[in-house]
Amino acid sequence: MKGTIYMPTIFPKDYCSTLSVKDTEQAIRYIRETFQDEFGEQMNLSRLTAPMFVSQDTGLNDNLNGVETPVSFTMKALPGKTIEIVHSLAKWKRDALRRYGYGIHEGLYTNMNAIRKDEDLDNFHSIYVDQWDWEKVITKDERNFDTLEAIVQQIFKVIKHMEDEVWYKYPQAVHHLPKHIHFVTTQDLEDRYPTLSPKEREDAICKELGAVFLMQIGGKLKSGKRHDGRAPDYDDWTLNGDILFWYEPLQRALELSSMGIRVDKGALQKQLELADATDRLKYPYHQMIMHDEMPLTIGGGIGQSRLCMLLLGKAHVGEVQASIWPQELIDECEKHQIHLL
After folding, report:
1. Entry pTM
2. Which of 16, 140, 220, 302 has the most Cβ atoms closer than 10 angstroms to its Cβ?
3. Which residues does the UniProt record annotate as the domain Aminoacyl-transfer RNA synthetases class-II family profile (predicted)?
4. Domains of the chain by range and CATH?
5. Residue 216 C-alpha from the chain's centroid
């Protein structure tokens, strides 16, 4: 496909969705509405309205792996200001907890819609990102693995209950999930699979265990390489991770959530130095962390389309969200009974 840049798309043999497009749309609405209500209740989170864009000079936008550039624009009422469409709300949420006066063990969640124009397209990725972003206040003593593990188990329990709810309404369509989630570090994976790439390691461990919380992403491993990139100024790289599921229809690991305990001033300073990004300390958000003016929090994002795809056994994220795709890909998907919305 000349001139088109995206990751290889997997076309499962003899794939045929068990739900029509119309029924899929109804299932999407049911999953999204039901999950967010239960998730908010179980995690003690209240729903907030969130921005689609922020001013560049606040330092609130997420720079992801540090190479993706946000979609930006200027506005008539703020001459000289650059406005950016958010990549995620990782920093905005923490600041919102401060501004709105949330207490210990209270939190928020919001519907986050973003454009990541530099995303490589494949079965799991599009340039449109829709997720539940969430954040919760914790104490200094709770900045540890036990807290992280407990929250991950809580989220996994809600996902499993959602599987039961979907099975009740769409028994012919539900994709069944493993009963337990396992905790593994990125260093464990490098030690176990030294000859595999990071993504191949994720596939291997998820195929073996079913569901994994892969911990400690961002810093260098013993090999001197990183498992994956992470922005240095929101997650503490020693207390973060991704929730991954083995996804049988595509024979791949599917990342459903990225989350972690957020940086305190010590972790922020250290990680900015490692990333050669200490210039970010000029931003108000970073200064508040360095002066202990930001609450200590844990938070993350849960992919809405990814959850729908996972629970409904879909072959492509474009079956559960409306985005933009190269025409060649749309045509090829149609040949394989994959109907992109």
Report:
1. 0.89
2. 302
3. 29-326
4. 21-335 (3.30.930.10)
5. 15
